[in-house]
Design brief:
Layout: E1 7-16, E2 19-29, H1 45-52, E3 60-65, E4 68-69, H2 74-79
Antiparallel strand pairs: 1-2, 1-3, 3-4
Length: 83
């Protein structure tokens, strides 16, 4: 396992309108790893994907790319993605 994960989520939460879709979502992915999202309609799968793609900011928590908080340089982060 590399010292710095390529993508890490720390205690992410998303609120849409007045509804909290999810909270305390944490994971880390090293190069070559994948994340499988499963859940019922309305559970926040698409919102998590939007957050990971940089189109949505978390209500709480951090999204880290190569050890750096995505919120500090969101345009640079999005420029390196294929979504």
């Amino acid at each position: 396992v590399p010292a710095i994960m390529m993508l890490a989520a720390e205690r992410l939460a998303v609120i849409r309108g007045e509804r909290q879709l999810f909270k305390d979502v944490s994971f880390s992915l090293a190069p070559g790893e994948a994340l499988l999202l499963r859940g019922p309609n309305g559970s926040g799968k698409s919102s998590l994907l939007r957050l990971l793609a940089g189109f949505l900011a978390p209500a709480t928590g951090q999204l880290l790319w190569q050890g750096q908080d995505v919120a500090h340089e969101p345009e640079e982060y999005r420029a390196g993605l294929i979504y």
